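queue> holo job accepted (magnesium ion)
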Amino acid sequence: MTQGAEDVIRWLDTLGSDDIGAVGGKGASLGEMTSAGLPVPPGFTVTADSYRRFIEETEIADELFEAVDVDPDDSAELARAESEAERLILDTEMPAEMRESILDAYADLDDGEAFVAVRSSATAEDLPDFSFAGQQETFLNVQGETLVERVKECWASLFTQRAIHYRNEQGFDGESVDIAVVVQRMVDAEKSGVLFTSHPSTGEPKLIIEAAWGLGEAVVSGSVSPDNYVIERETGELLDHTVADKKHLMEKDPETGETIERAVSEEKRTAPVLESDEIDRLVELGTRAERHYDGPQDVEWALVDGEVFMLQSRPITTIDDDADVRDTASQTDENDVLARGHGASPGVVAGPVRIIRKLDQLDKVSEGDVIVTEETTPDMVPAMKRAAGIVTDEGGMTSHAAIVSRELGVPAVVGTSDATERLSDDQPVTIDGDKGTVTAGDVEPTEAEREEHADVRPQNPVKPMTATEVKVNVSIPEAAHRAAQTGADGVGLLRMEHMILSTNKTPERYIADHGEEAYIEEIVEGVRGVADEFYPRPVRVRTLDAPTDEFRQLEGGDDEPHEHNPMLGYRGIRRSLDRPETFAHEIEAFSRLFEMGYDNVEIMFPLVNDGEDVRRARELLEASGIDLDKRSWGVMVETPAAALTIEAMCEVGIDFASFGTNDLTQYTLAVDRNNENVAGRFDELHPAVLSLIGDVIETCRTHDVATSICGQAGSKPEMARFLVNEGVSSISANIDAVRDVQHEVKRVEQKLLLDTVR
Ligand code: PEP
Ligand code: MG
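queue> job finished
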């Protein structure tokens, strides 16, 4: 049987949303947009039928399906299946008339010279919409006859390890999925980004535009923080905009045609990407798209020579009907700013200042006061709970004050340098935990504001379903209820030290005063409170990790070793392995919890450096009779050494590795996480940190070891984007960030899925 050109290819302007079966979701969607008169770069699709006929006419179908029928949990078999499928498809010649039809269409596109984007577009019927089947291929800047090879590579991408694994998990075999390919003229974008026609979380009638220099890949992959514009839909008024530091961009190499990354020139790095007439055009385009599809859209756009192109439009499915629509950014008059630091816990509150200089002053903090202190310590937690807000001189986004205030839902501004000097007792102030400002004024919080901070944000009963688990960090057991309300998939980090430090005694002093039994029970009860709240969702409990300077402020602190640099000192697993008698009590607490039936409790070791640390920790667990075949245990990856020796740790038998990016960043960049002078250099998205993380994920995947993040950076959308694209198993975020991270993860997964099925 021979094929006509029309069977092999279909032009975008002949397609509509009903053509998914023929050209996949991506092809059909671009066809629909083109037919609706939206400015889509011209192109055509190689139909799904062509792929089917290719494997049948060349008689490779049986061999192909046999090769990919493997145990999806056996990574060696999966790897073999992928390379066998790739070999079969790439080494088999495409029937001549099919090849000709594709190249003829390409010649019609732009005199046969065009650079085109080639993307796979799998037919969607067989894939449940809440899962994602891994990445399929996209090739940019393809020119000439290599197009044919690229089309075949798109076909082969149906059989990557990840795609086979996901299909298998969803109960589909390789035979039931077809794949089309979209070929579209490249737009050499000078500027590009994403446009939400309504707020992606709250559904408010506000357009959000993200924009960066160069091709859109940098924005979509999360490798660049874009500028952000918020526009009132009704009036077109620009409500807010943030200009990001856009360190690099992606563009076409004029020599090779390849997509390359390069540094952005100094003057453009912090210059706004969009002119006001460009914003107007994007708003107009977004409004047309929303009208055409009759609902909020997430649009990918590109701008070249003043012309806007729309590269993709899809419905926003992340809008939370019950979302909190309060705009927390107060209208701050710059003249009134008394102190400025980092907005560490969101929300705007007002109250009288309480300067806390010594611990014995904690009693003077009453309900509704604003605590102003050099830095917070664990025994301040009861007072922090009473406070309306918290302001510190010292500390960054990962400081104790920042972590605990976020968990308590108390707005906080940290690292102001001198708030304790500038402010005075009883002075009425308003603090903005988003902007990081403390302003003069006794603006009473409204009832709504009080309510908001009394409880967690309203939760959507239908939380977004994500394939990547989104968990929550809990440092203080008191926050467990609030944490569970987020609908998180478990606790990614429960810090044990807060249970002990809040007793105001070092472990050794507590044991000396109250006995071993009381110490063990303190831990059991602390963990139980959280494990109950989350059961059967898993709760990852980290063994003790506090630097000696934190212990020093407690009773018994005088007995702690004096260290020149506690961050590089006697903490985490180092201390535990060095003091096995005290560590044994923590392990005993785990044994008791397991005996009590808390099979959702997992054990995590902090600050391990290599396989030897892990082996020694494992031996102590086994010596206590804990059956590691039944329990989930793992490590934190917090030092470059740990990242670089992850393979050895996997070989010791860990079930998971979790990135402690607070420490991993400080140790990789040699930037003290609590030092204000270098706070501007603390960058969890630094390429060196991301490179370590990416490599660890890859190694862990080959060893079937789950990966996660439990450092502060897990709450950042850019990091979530990076991690999901890298294939992380779970992300653990701060309580107040869980909802946003869930939406962000969903968005990235949908993007991956749509890249697969469109
Ligand atoms: C980390 O280092 O990222 C982490 C989660 O541990 P901590 O902040 O307690 O050091
Ligand atoms: Mg750490």
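queue> The chain has five domains: 5-185, 191-315, 336-444, 490-596, 608-689.
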